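Researcher: Structure prediction, please.
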Amino acid sequence: MARAATTSDPFNAVAEPRRREILELLVSGERSVGDLVSRLGLEQPSVSKHLGVLRRVGLVRARRHGRNILYEVNPAGIRPLHEWTNTFERLWAHQLLRVKERAEQKAKRVDCE
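Model: Predicted structure follows.
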């Protein structure tokens, strides 16, 4: 099965670590390209390219503010990623419960010695 193009699939878009970093920075609010460049330590064309991909797949949206373009996370675009990762919530809850039970059993054995 052919892989979806990065520019058409949010899952492929976030597979790139730099795009995830950009999304993490945008979670706290709008940022300009210049701000992202300084925080990420990347060149402006690279940041703009990543923002373009994130925008095309609907994960970020942009608005003009004077001479700047401000980017922010698009909650509706993030929703499919969030819903998919939530399918694994029960697995992690179960794993954490098992770790807790083992730690409690070990603590009881130590107390009994």
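Model: The longest helix spans residues 89-112.
Researcher: Thanks, that helps.
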